[in-house]
Amino acid sequence: MARRNGELAGLTPRARGPKAKPVDPRDKKIAELERQTRKLQARLERAEGLIELQKKVAAILSEPLTDDERA
To answer: Mean pLDDT in runs of 10 for the chain (71 residues)?
Structure first.
């Protein structure tokens, strides 16, 4: 009877620890896109470095690269 009235509600066991927060799918997508952006940015920087190296080598050899050689 007392339980039905809510008088013993404080005596029932409760889960310990912080409550789990639901994961927002938008947060997952944002994190994935940020990882992809960092990866592509690093790849772009490497490609630009290689292009600069090719330009320097071409200048040293005094032979400009043609479009076919750059590909």
So the answer is: 61 80 92 98 98 91 69 57
Closest among 43, 39, 58 to 70, alpha carbons compared: 58
The pTM (predicted TM-score) of the whole model is 0.54
Q: How far apart are CA 56 and CA 48, in angstroms?
A: 12
Gap between the Cα atoms of 51 and 69, Å rounded: 12
The Cα–Cα gap between 9 and 7 comes to: 6
Q: What angle do CA 17, 21, 23 make, to 5 degrees?
A: 145
